[in-house]
Design a protein that fits this description.
Blueprint: E1 2-8, E2 13-20, E3 23-27, H1 34-42, E4 46-51, H2 63-70, E5 73-76, E6 87-88, E7 94-97, E8 100-106, E9 115-120, E10 126-132, H3 155-170, E11 178-181, E12 199-200, H4 201-207, H5 217-225, H6 235-244, H7 249-256, E13 259-260, H8 262-269, E14 275-278, H9 282-287, E15 293-295, H10 302-310, E16 317-320, H11 326-334, E17 341-345, H12 348-354, E18 363-365, H13 367-376, E19 380-383, H14 387-392, E20 394-395, E21 399-400, H15 406-409, E22 418-422, H16 427-438, E23 443-447, H17 450-456, E24 461-462
Parallel strand pairs: 3-4, 4-5, 5-6, 10-11, 13-17, 14-15, 14-16, 16-17, 18-23, 19-21, 19-22, 22-23
Antiparallel strand pairs: 1-2, 2-3, 7-8, 8-9, 9-10, 11-12, 20-24
Helix pairs in contact: 3-5, 7-11
């Protein structure tokens, strides 16, 4: 028996390759299918089934292209209603893979069709549980996503279902069962997900509040729904694509790999609804960029922030990309359904600058200079980190405006004011700074190095009572 966890850091997503006696299954594959094909070839195995734990909201799954390429059957749990042929298992129904058994455990709560898959080894013993978004390490899946798709279900109703699913289906399993979730730290599908990527169920029973045997249903529901941030607006579009199907990644990449001259790029940028997306390093962007371009760096949580900030997956995109990373950028956009890339600027920003075109910049300020300025006058500081980060520790007199809520929470009246932005290390605040510049905020200052750097200079911090 072989179990390989395939981690995609950009999405904090884990898919799985499992092989036994020449047969293999894939659980929750990404849209690009090459990693699964190559593993099957490596182990001389035939992919028999493709298991989906639910209809994913935060990425585009590869079940359809992988099935078409390999002939493997797609498998969902109870209550799944896809618009393509697949096996929909009943609760407790088994499938055989080599010398292994895979048992469907219907665990509604995150979504109604959410299903965990229990792997029984060659001796029939419970070995591992692939929990999808039902159970994470340190947390559980948020209960407010199904209502954002076609089903109109309250988050409290789903939270109660999840409470029952955990107690009836997961808690009774042996402590030495290995938990393999579909997401890790950084995913928007949970609030308190651990940085670990696998653990024994017994350890989770000791440390995960959701598996506390003494927690009541009301306590569980309150803990789960309190402090939930609004899910990114692209989530329902991804659910729809996963239910109905989409283009191959290879076609999306081929269509988007168009090298554009400065004049072609400029002409396309004048079209209605086009977004110029600059994916270079944040320092390069700050020192010079095309006016009205949005920064989201490729070397970060790129795809989720694209979906969160741009929101509409059909948005036409023009890309400013570091040389040699064109294909990678378009592929990573496709992971969250942003398939409408018009092309990229040939030779990048330098070609734009060398052509004598107008440029813009983001003013950055060192923590030391910020410290001296803050002694002279009260500065307007926006902390764009998540609420739990802000509550843990923040600058005195700073205002928490999380990046995902920036558009709704900074007033137009601030456009003429001097603003200072920071996050933890600088990635998110540069996204925020670029957004504000696009919206006409004239005096935006990004604090270099973020909160980590500010603390190192001894600037006074506070914590909030939660």
């Amino acid at each position: 028996m072989i179990i390989e966890q395939i981690l995609t850091n950009c999405l904090s997503q884990m898919s799985y390759f499992i092989e036994s006696n020449g047969e293999a299954i894939i659980i929750d594959p990404l849209r690009e299918i090459e990693p699964y094909i190559s593993r099957a070839k490596k182990y001389n195995a035939k992919i028999k089934y493709i298991f989906e734990t639910h209809f994913h909201a935060d990425f585009i799954s590869g079940h359809l292209p992988l099935s078409k390429h390999t002939g493997a059957q797609i498998v969902f749990g109870p209550m799944a209603i896809p618009k393509f042929d697949c096996i929909v298992l009943n609760d407790s129904e088994e499938l055989i893979v080599g010398n292994l058994k895979i048992v469907a455990l219907h665990t509604p709560g995150h979504t109604m069709e959410s299903t965990c898959y229990l792997l029984k080894d060659e001796n029939g013993k419970n070995h591992s549980l692939f929990t999808g978004d039902t159970l994470f390490l340190g947390d559980v899946g948020r209960p407010d996503l199904a209502q954002k798709s076609k089903q109109k279900l309250s988050e409290k109703y789903l939270a109660k279902l999840l409470y029952k699913s955990l107690r009836d289906k997961i808690f009774p399993l042996e402590d030495n069962v290995v938990i393999y979730p579909s997401h890790g730290f950084g995913s928007a599908c949970g609030k308190k997900i651990s940085k670990k990527t696998m653990a024994f169920l017994g350890d989770e029973k000791k440390t995960n509040y959701a598996l506390n045997p003494d927690i009541s249903e009301n306590e569980f529901v309150n803990e789960l729904v309190t402090g939930l941030e609004k899910p990114p607006k692209y989530f329902p579009s991804n659910v729809k694509m996963n239910m109905e199907g989409c283009q191959k990644t290879s076609k999306v990449i081929a269509d988007g790999l168009k090298s554009l001259s400065v004049d072609e790029f400029e002409n396309l940028s004048k079209r209605k609804g086009v977004t110029i997306l600059d994916v270079r390093d944040k320092n390069e962007f700050a020192s010079g960029h095309i006016p009205n371009s949005l920064f989201i760096g490729i070397d970060g949580m790129f795809a989720p922030w694209v979906g969160t900030v741009i929101e509409e997956i059909s948005t036409p995109l023009l890309l400013v990309i570091p040389k040699g990373r064109e294909k990678e950028t378009i592929k990573r956009l496709a992971r969250v359904g942003f398939d409408n890339t018009l092309g990229y600027l040939n030779d990048g920003f330098e070609s734009w600058k060398n052509a004598g075109k107008k440029t813009n910049y983001i003013n950055t300020i060192s923590p030391n200079i910020f410290k001296e300025e803050s002694k002279k006058k009260l500065l307007k500081v926006y902390d764009v980190r998540k609420p739990f980060e802000f509550n843990s520790s923040h600058l005195e007199n700073s205002i928490n405006v999380p990046l995902n809520n920036l558009n709704q929470n900074i007033k137009d009246s601030e456009k003429e004011n001097e603003l200072f932005l920071h996050c933890q290390t600088g990635y998110r605040s540069m996204i925020a700074s670029s957004l504000l510049k696009i919206k006409g905020y004239k005096n935006v200052n990004d604090i270099d190095g973020g909160f980590v750097a500010l603390k190192s200079f001894g600037i006074k911090t506070l914590s909030s009572k939660i």
